[in-house]
Amino acid sequence: MKIVKVYGELKKKLGQSTFELNVDTPAQAIKALCANFPDLSNWFIENDQNGYGYKVQVGKQKIFADNLKPMLQPWTEKDVLKIVPVIAGAGRGFGQIIAGALLLGLAFVGAPLLGVALTKGLTYMGMSLIVNGITELLSPTPPPIPEASKLKSFSFSGIVNVADQGVAVPICYGRVYTGSVVVSFGLESQPAT
């Protein structure tokens, strides 16, 4: 019997946190949960559309979306399969937050030895990493627009007037010398007389 533990909203949905299942692989464990709770697969789909993802871990091995082979491999009874619902984008910013906190700690502890300039630099870098980490946790990076779905325009040529759909439009203050990006273009033809 293999042990499967669920957390957060998934635990509330299923009514308990620990399950003992007679399965060989993590994929079979998830299939068994969906078989025992008929509306669970729809719940997974709805949560995915609402920006929730799942961290899956077997023992100490984490399973990522870009490598799902471990989902099909058997695991030992001493390891536990953990399924944790997370907000999409969570997890990527934790490393930056930890690195920023370490730099801030180094700046405060080593201030007498490092000097004012180096202490300020470490403080600014640490604060920047912490803010970037929090930003990544709160707002995941949107997926890029696939090349095939972008609208192509062959009205212009040259490197100055070419812009892809969806690029940022800069806002400039003060006196600025800048190139142009064509926002709209139209042509009318007159019949020959």
Descriptive account of the structure:
With 193 residues, the protein is α+β, with helices and mostly antiparallel strands. Among the domains are: 2-87, Beta-grasp domain (Ubiquitin-like (UB roll)), CATH 3.10.20.30; 94-138. 37% of the residues lie in helices and 14% in strands. The protein has six helices and five strands; from the N terminus they run βαβααβββααα. It has helices at 8-14, 26-36, 40-49, 94-109, 111-114, 116-138; strands at 2-6, 18-21, 52-58, 61-63, 80-87. A five-stranded mixed sheet has the order 2-1-5-3-4. Helix 4 runs antiparallel to helix 6. Mean pLDDT is 75; it is low at 155-159.
